[in-house]
């Protein structure tokens, strides 16, 4: 099946219905083709509960350059790959227990996606918006449902940019005095029912977050994991790093932002990388298999099986979990250090809910830095959010097991997840399932 949209003539949606991972629910997979240049892969799963009523959630992994199939087959999808990479097992804590899930491989050349490269977050958000318009036109039964954009790691860049793109396009479509909005509406462009954004262990505000790498490595609740000399190197590197990030924030171009990336990552992240520890979990050594987790290698093995690629309609010769050429492209474009948190105040002040959650054993996008930037974010509710108390997050069914801490004001929430690294749903699947069910149903933590 091929779907087109009159408002997006250069885009086409190729769709098939696979029966892998969770054959008990309806699935769609395929490609968003942009002329002959770019091809974005997606895999959709209906909710296990009430697909006609449950919200739609778009999931994006980070990198930049890492596939969202990692989120699907390692973290929150309906199944997980087995250790041998020759099959999958059911995930009882999948987020599609109460949501319709879309996993999208973006930007181009990530996972099953391929084509002419895109190396900045704003351009990537344009393609994601077009994908959503074609998807909701083709599958109109989901178009009026609440919509959520969630992402992990470099998703701290993607999610604010995509959320802002959707919000601003919606505003134009809803403005009866906007001739442009009415023109696009007449061509079938739909208002996307944006309800919330979610960022898990994200890279969002580098100026604040880089300050806390030293604390996570040398003074966290898990104890110091580096030598005194390495700790001093990290601490001493921050002033020069901060100076360059401030310049990047001021000019937002490659000339000012690339030096910030190289200075900060060499001086502050470098000493940790030299330790041989897992940057995604300070409790663990870095194992082989990709991103320090053997399961990443198992995912690559599974998604490169000929019968799996055929069932999913994958066009690429070889699936890669992470493409370091994409990563370097974003770095050289200066995208890494840009201040994407600046998209969030407008969304918060317009009533869009935002959840920031962080596993407290992660180093690379650690909870100290994530909590700090949420407190320092300049928006109408900043003073009240900063003054709010941290409360215990306890989990059902007993409600007496504390699994984290939560701080909220109005539609802004920060959640610390105990005992989880960078991939919260992988390390704490039950806590993760409780978190997403409460958030989607708008129940308090």
Automatic annotation (TrEMBL):
Superkingdom field: Eukaryota
Enzyme Commission no: 3.4.16.-
Biological process annotations from GO: proteolysis
Claim: Protease is one of the keywords in the record: yes
Transmembrane segments: none
A Gene Ontology term for the protein's cellular component: fungal-type vacuole
SUPFAM superfamilies: alpha/beta-Hydrolases
UniProt keyword list: Carboxypeptidase, Glycoprotein, Hydrolase, Protease, Signal
InterPro entries cross-referenced by the UniProt entry: AB_hydrolase_fold, Peptidase_S10, Ser_caboxypep_his_AS, Ser_caboxypep_ser_AS
GO molecular function terms attached to this record: serine-type carboxypeptidase activity
Name the record gives this protein: Carboxypeptidase
Taxonomic classification: Eukaryota, Fungi, Fungi incertae sedis, Zoopagomycota, Kickxellomycotina
